[in-house]
């Protein structure tokens, strides 16, 4: 009997509620295939700070190390808002965990079903069939992890510096992920940079051009400046198929993509590591793109789809269970099409709770 | 008789067409007040490369130095697209001119008239009364002008670095501009940074908090992470009044703001220098936010409003002619409301050409 060994980090506010039903869906989807779930729960984020004094407790890291993947919940919220920015749960948990497990590739599907175009801030005529793209963000390099310093100058002024650093090899490995993603889709990659200003972007652009030509000449590679990409994303997101970009630009552009896709409650993400797990597949962290929705926490009405779709991504990337992943994705879509919807995506139609939503998805597996 | 001495850099493609009628409007607006225009034209951008071998020719710099302000046209386009990114006209003209004249403060009004909400990609119900905000971008610091280097590592890998550098004094002077702008509007500033990751942003946030509390306690200051700002801009732009942010974030967020405001043909900008001109007012560069629209160049149908509104900003900031500036701004708005519109903002209504548009504005001064 195949066993899936993963860590479950439910997180804060709505985190545990949606995690709980996501595990139900995962169980229902894998059981018929004779697959067993073997997971251990651990604190992270605000729950980590409150229970163990640290957003990413050592005990949590240990549990993750012993697993083949991490199913991660949303973290943070008003309770910890007055902490200094660098100590806030999201930042204090996510940056170290990315670094520790070399989670260098963040994949965010930008998916909006045609049935949900009302959820997008964009005029419906701009996205008549919804949105379907993927953003591939480099996640362990660039200005996030480069050297930082602050000093007092002779004249008393204070000067701060952050270094954006990229190696060619780091760019090549994220291109590999973008290429693999593009091959499962339209064979189109748009590389986003600021090569007219940044040296790192010049290296990025040259490397992309050279590497794609050499390793995947069938792929159509284009380049776009990040300022233009921010415009194009809000103007016509469907011009993109796969975007690949560096850490900071990816942070901004993928969040813009998220909002343009309407409900954050539907958006999942995968952060893949350089390391292989015990199945010789990429170790990865899988999490919803949206936040912890403190205003509705505990009410049983949060949208669990993002967490459920993140579990599907885990099945695909870290456990090689493509078929079951697709089954879950189709069931989520079918439920929404059948008007089984939580409040955030109901648009005047009757809405259902978190558990009912999960049940509707399980019925459609 | 008061004389306005400025340099006119018409730029490329539609640049000269819209510049020519903008000068007509400027003349018509200032003449009744007994004001004379004294301007000298010079090449810049592609025209600079083609005529003098340089995107920013020395002779052009000299003409600008002798003036009290620069009225600048859009530059760049397909003709120079195959040049390396760093040599493309926009980049090769704008970065040196900003540095040379210490144009540290870029002001971009994000203005969408209620009559033009069709032009925005956003659903009309999100912006029922149009959009009205201002983005204040720091323009001579940060990663644009910090040290850059590339080196080959021992293992043969290549590594590139760009340094983002900010001094407290640079942050304070851009805050001064944001404060002055906020005082003419709703007394609200949103400072955009990435203080959970960047040291420069920590300095930015601390300086903003301290400086506004000390020098303009009546202003309501909020802080937002740049990734969230990219979401909020596409979700609900009117939550912003004045945004202040560093160079790179401002590049991205202000372009997103531009597209959200619909027609780029309506958007102007001012880049103010640290230096004072002969009138003891800020030396500045005034330019449309949109591009050179090569597809319609020479057809006499380009929207001249962005260039005309840039001229109005010049009157206000570098010549202290607030009343005439407002007169022009009102005339542009009135013309659009009276359905005098170029093709880009006509939306099915009959459209008029560049010259007719300018004439309609002059009639309404
Ligand atoms: C919390 C923060 C450090 C993080 C980032 O900037 O990467 C978040 O915004 C994200 O995108 O996951
Ligand atoms: C051309 C480029 C260097 C420039 C910038 O990034 O500042 C442009 O995008 C702008 O915003 O004026």
UniProtKB/TrEMBL annotation, chains A, B:
Enumerate the InterPro entries for this protein.
IsoCit/isopropylmalate_DH_CS (IPR019818), IsoPropMal-DH-like_dom (IPR024084), Isopropylmalate_DH (IPR004429)
**Is this entry keyworded Amino-acid biosynthesis?**
yes
Where does the protein principally reside?
cytoplasm
Per UniProt, the cofactor note for this protein states: Binds 1 Mg(2+) or Mn(2+) ion per subunit.
> Which reactions is this enzyme annotated as catalysing?
(2R,3S)-3-isopropylmalate + NAD(+) = 4-methyl-2-oxopentanoate + CO2 + NADH
Query: What is the required cofactor set for this protein?
Result: Mg(2+); Mn(2+)
The pathway this protein participates in, as annotated, is: Amino-acid biosynthesis; L-leucine biosynthesis; L-leucine from 3-methyl-2-oxobutanoate: step 3/4
Family annotation (Gene3D superfamilies): Isopropylmalate Dehydrogenase
| Keywords, alphabetical | Amino-acid biosynthesis, Branched-chain amino acid biosynthesis, Cytoplasm, Leucine biosynthesis, Magnesium, Manganese, Metal-binding, NAD, Oxidoreductase
Residues in domain Isopropylmalate dehydrogenase-like? Answer: 5-361
* SMART domains found in the cross-reference section: Iso_dh (SM01329)
Q: What is its EC number?
A: 1.1.1.85
Q: Which GO terms describe its cellular component?
A: cytosol
Q: Which residues bind Mg(2+)?
A: 227, 251, 255
Give the site residues for Important for catalysis.
144, 194
Give residues annotated as binding substrate: 98, 108, 137, 227
Q: Where in the cell is it found?
A: Cytoplasm
Say what the protein does: Catalyzes the oxidation of 3-carboxy-2-hydroxy-4-methylpentanoate (3-isopropylmalate) to 3-carboxy-4-methyl-2-oxopentanoate. The product decarboxylates to 4-methyl-2 oxopentanoate.
Please report the name of this protein according to its UniProt entry. 3-isopropylmalate dehydrogenase
Please tell me the species this chain comes from: Pelagicoccus mobilis
């Amino acid at each position: 009997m195949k066993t899936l060994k993963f860590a479950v980090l439910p997180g804060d506010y709505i985190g545990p509620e949606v995690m709980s039903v996501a595990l139900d869906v995962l169980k229902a989807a894998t059981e018929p295939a004779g697959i067993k779930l073997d997971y251990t729960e651990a604190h992270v984020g605000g729950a980590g700070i409150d229970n163990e004094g640290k957003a990413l407790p050592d005990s949590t890291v240990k549990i993750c190390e012993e697993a083949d993947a991490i199913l991660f919940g949303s973290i943070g919220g008003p309770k910890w808002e007055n902490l200094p920015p660098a100590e806030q749960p999201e930042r204090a948990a996510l940056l170290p965990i990315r670094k520790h497990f070399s989670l260098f590739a963040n994949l965010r599907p930008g998916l909006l079903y045609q049935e949900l175009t009302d959820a997008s801030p964009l005029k419906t005529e701009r996205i008549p069939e919804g949105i379907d793209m993927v953003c591939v963000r480099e996640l362990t390099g660039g200005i996030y992890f480069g050297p930082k310093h602050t000093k007092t100058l002779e004249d008393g002024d204070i000067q701060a510096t952050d270094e954006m650093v990229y190696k060619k090899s780091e760019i090549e490995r994220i291109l590999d992920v973008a290429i693999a993603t593009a091959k499962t889709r339209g064979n189109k990659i748009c590389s986003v940079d600021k090569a007219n200003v940044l040296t790192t972007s010049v290296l990025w652009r040259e490397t992309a051009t050279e590497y794609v030509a050499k390793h995947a000449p069938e792929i159509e590679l284009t380049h776009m400046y990040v300022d233009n990409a921010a415009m194009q994303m809000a103007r016509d997101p469907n011009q993109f198929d796969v975007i690949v970009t560096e850490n900071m630009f990816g942070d901004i552009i993928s969040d813009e993509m998220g909002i343009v896709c309407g409900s954050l409650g539907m958006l999942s993400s995968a952060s893949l590591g350089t390391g292989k797990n015990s199945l010789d597949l990429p170790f990865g962290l899988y999490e919803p793109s949206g936040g912890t929705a403190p205003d509705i926490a505990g009410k049983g009405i949060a949208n669990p789809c993002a967490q459920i779709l993140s579990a599907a991504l885990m099945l695909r990337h870290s456990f090689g269970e493509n078929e079951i992943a697709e089954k879950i994705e189709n069931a989520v879509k079918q439920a929404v099409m059948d008007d089984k919807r939580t409040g955030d995506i109901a648009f005047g139609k009757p809405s259902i709770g978190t558990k009912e939503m999960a049940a509707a998805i399980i019925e459609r597996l």
